[in-house]
Amino acid sequence: MAPIFDDDNSLFNFVVKEGNGIKGLVDLGLTEVPGRYIQPPHRRINKQEVAGSREIVTIDLSELDGPNHEQVVKAIVHASETLGFFQVVNHGVPLEVLDSLKVTAHQFFGQPAEKKAVYLKEVSPSPLVKYGTSFVPENEKSLEWKDYLSMMYTNDADARQSWPNDCKEVLLEYINTSTEMVQKLLQLLIGNLGVKLDDSRLHELMGFNLVNMNFYPPCPNPDLTIGLGSHSNVSMLIVLLQDGIGGLYVKKGDQNASVGNEVWVEIPPMNGALVINVGDSLQILSNGRYISAEHRVRTSDVESRVSVPRFIAPLLTTKIGPFPELVACDGVARYKEVIYGEYLKNLFEKSLDGKKSLDFASI
């Protein structure tokens, strides 16, 4: 192991506090995984135990405007009710934007540490931008093999003023060209439940947006680490661009299956496609009909992986609970009403741990 750190604190300070990240650690000539990054056996990802990816459907959204409209709606609904993940093509985001996003992510994380560290939470010039590593490293016993840049979206003007100059324009194009698709998907999924929403309520449910650039440097021993721990997202929907490296795994079937009895499937990289997944908020609103599935990311020893997720969520002050129409139909509310901002705060006070985030709304 080339880099020498006196103890865990010096390693933590180098990676987390000083903003060098995993990228900085790897650049030192790392040949072994530091102990702080070695995951307990039950959290590691064994590729031999992963099922095939045939369950992952790819949906051509252009067919929503043609004679196959009903079949496409059924496919979207079925995927949201069963796996909680699907891929879409002909989604309205230009392919050159997707390619540019991947290049931009590599360029940002390839910069010297001091240029990225200006966006560390403690010193960032804007509360809308945060650069960091792992999830909440202060709360984690074993750290994740990931660096990230997270940007809150309020409007284009705020983004242009506060987001990093070298990535803001392509990220804004990503948001602006994917918004019509997001609205259409949410309207279809909510409409399928027999629920009618006016524009103001729809805005409440998708009015809080984050976009991240995630960077997973090569790891000397992927079998001991994780890029992103098993979790479900708290938002309504997530739109994800992944590159061609692969490594995104989704838990299939019983989300409460015990360790050792779980079935995981890989979301295969597909050029030009976007991955869509259901978040906790939509699972709560649908009274459990749509599934916010656990997922995680494996590291690679070959090359760096990037992904760009967009999180579409309710406004922080919005109350979310099962739609009354569904409670009347089902005869039971499976979740209590919560304020989304409090639900989000609860997530960031802990480390990622499967679907435990949903406990906050459980009855």
Provide the structure class.
Answer: alpha+beta
- CATH C-level class is Mainly Beta
Quote the distance from N terminus to C terminus.
49 Å
CA-based gyration radius: 20 Å
Q: How many β-strands, per DSSP?
A: 15
- Biggest sheet: strands, sense, closure? 8 strands, mixed
Total individual domains? 1
Instruction: State the fourth-level CATH superfamily.
Output: B-lactam Antibiotic, Isopenicillin N Synthase, Chain
Strand content: 15-25%
The DSSP helix count reads 11
The oligomeric status of these chains comes to single chain
Which fold name is given in CATH as the topology?
A: Jelly Rolls
Overall shape: it is globular
Secondary-structure element order, N to C: HHEEHEHHEEHHHEEEEEEHEEEHEH
Catalytic activity: (E)-feruloyl-CoA + 2-oxoglutarate + O2 = (E)-6-hydroxyferuloyl-CoA + succinate + CO2
GO molecular function, one term: metal ion binding
Keywords: Dioxygenase, Iron, Metal-binding, Oxidoreductase
Protein name: feruloyl-CoA 6-hydroxylase
Description:
With 363 residues, the protein is α+β, with helices and mostly antiparallel strands. It has one domain: B-lactam Antibiotic, Isopenicillin N Synthase, Chain (Jelly Rolls, Sandwich), CATH 2.60.120. It contains 11 helices and 15 strands. The protein has helices spanning 8-17, 21-27, 69-82, 95-109, 113-117, 156-162, 168-192, 199-205, 280-285, 324-330, 340-348, and strands at residues 50-51, 58-60, 85-89, 129-133, 147-153, 208-216, 228-231, 237-242, 248-252, 263-266, 274-278, 295-297, 305-313, 319-320, 338-339. The strands form 3 sheets. Strands 2-3-11-8-13-6-5-4 form an 8-stranded mixed beta sheet. The protein has a 5-stranded mixed beta sheet with strand order 1-10-9-12-7, with no helix packed on it. Helix 3 links the parallel strand 2 and strand 3. The protein is globular, with a radius of gyration of 20 Å. 39% of the residues are buried. One of its GO terms (biological process) is coumarin biosynthetic process. One of its GO terms (molecular function) is 2-oxoglutarate-dependent dioxygenase activity. Its EC number is 1.14.11.61. Pfam families: 2OG-FeII_Oxy (PF03171), DIOX_N (PF14226).
